[in-house]
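Problem: given the chain below (119 residues), write out its structure.
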Amino acid sequence: MQPVITVKNLFKTYASGHQALKNINLEIRKGEIFALLGPNGAGKTTLISIICGIVNATSGQVLAGPYDIRSDYRNARKLIGLVPQELATDAFESVWATVNFSRGLFGKPADKSFLERIL
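Solution.
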């Protein structure tokens, strides 16, 4: 079974010289329960941001299914969803509305039946 997320030899060094990620290798398979844990500054947010195409890696490769997130970003982003930790919307907004809004950030149209199925 092909992994849904593959990270190969991933490095991220910021302009300041800070190396946030050093040779990260990871495979996440469909249906697998995965937790990304670590202390502040460990690179968790940087890794997630690279996987989602928000931040560019210094080197290495990330695949969403069979699609490279850099060279085939349109197809890759169709497979990736992100609900940010600190989404600036109304504090009383429902989970459904927040996820629906988040889909729009990735160019996904509203799809009530899909949201009802996953939530």
